[in-house]
Write a structure and sequence with these properties.
alpha/beta, globular, 11-stranded mixed beta sheet, two-stranded antiparallel sheet, 263 residues, Rossmann fold, 5 helices
């Protein structure tokens, strides 16, 4: 039986939630992860919690060592990753405070190390369905059971950041059919697939980006306030979901077996 990795799970390392907590420092071939990993149990299941931006949120999105983060969780025996992420809404129906379970992404990043296979071998990992369908469905069911406002699907566009979008960019992404926008899903989700891990994310809408003419311009103060109000819902969903995860075979963990050329 494996463990569940949690990325960006601020608040889940509360001793009231996490049983028998133990902080572990992990070194990987790709350097240090963003933070030490807090390990313990939630609902009788082993979990490993990693702060994507560091314990004090000091690492900006492009500087996150995504490879080290994913490698560290795999090295600790994780077979699944539940991630959380703040996002901007590109749709009227996705209001600030709503949660979204994206099923597709568009990659607009340019500076990030996006593969574990740099030399001697090339990995063409399939990403037609980038988020684990089984893990996504469990999280969606948990949100429904808890009566938390959410959206079952959506396309997330990940931008480089750390700046926010211009209005022209925001309208462009809307014209592409994107529903939400963030700065961290890529390359986290693709690296998880290369590592043979099931991965899904819970995206929390904090604002209407800047396309919404009747809304205020986005500020970090606005985002932090909504995040404080809604982080509890993400924690509730994770706590509800984790005991339901079944450590059975999944196509997410099979793709890598036929994706590598060379070596």
């Amino acid at each position: 039986m494996g463990a569940i990795g949690i990325i960006g799970g601020s608040g889940l390392d509360d001793p009231a939630i996490l049983k028998q907590p133990e902080v572990k420092s992990v070194t990987t071939p790709y350097g240090e992860p963003s933070s030490p990993v807090t390990c313990g149990e939630i609902g009788g299941v082993q979990v490993a919690i990693l702060a994507r931006h560091g314990k004090k949120h000091t690492i900006y999105p492009s500087a996150v060592n995504y490879r080290a983060n994913v490698w560290a969780l795999k090295d600790l025996g994780c077979t699944h990753i539940l991630a959380s992420s703040a996002c901007g809404s590109l749709r009227e129906a996705i209001e600030p405070g709503h949660l979204v379970f994206p099923d597709q992404f568009i990659d607009r990043t340019t500076k990030r190390e996006s593969t574990f296979y740099e030399r001697d071998r090339v990995c063409h990992i399939p990403m037609g369905e980038p988020f684990c369908p089984q893990l996504r469905q469990l999280a969606i069911e948990s949100a429904a059971n808890l009566r938390i406002e959410h959206h079952n699907a959506g396309t997330v566009v990940t931008i480089e950041g750390p700046r926010f979008s211009t209005k022209a960019e925001s309208h462009l992404f809307r014209s592409w059919g994107c529903d939400i926008i963030n700065m961290t899903t890529i390359p986290e989700v693709t690296l998880a697939r290369e590592a043979g891990l099931c991965y899904t994310t819970i995206a929390m809408s904090t604002d209407y980006d800047c396309w919404h003419e009747t809304e205020e311009d986005v500020t970090i103060e606005m985002i932090l306030e909504i995040m404080r109000k809604n982080a509890e819902n993400v924690i509730r969903i994770m706590v509800e979901t984790i005991p339901k995860i079944r450590f059975t075979e999944c196509s997410c963990r099979e793709y890598i077996k036929t994706a590598v050329i060379g070596g």
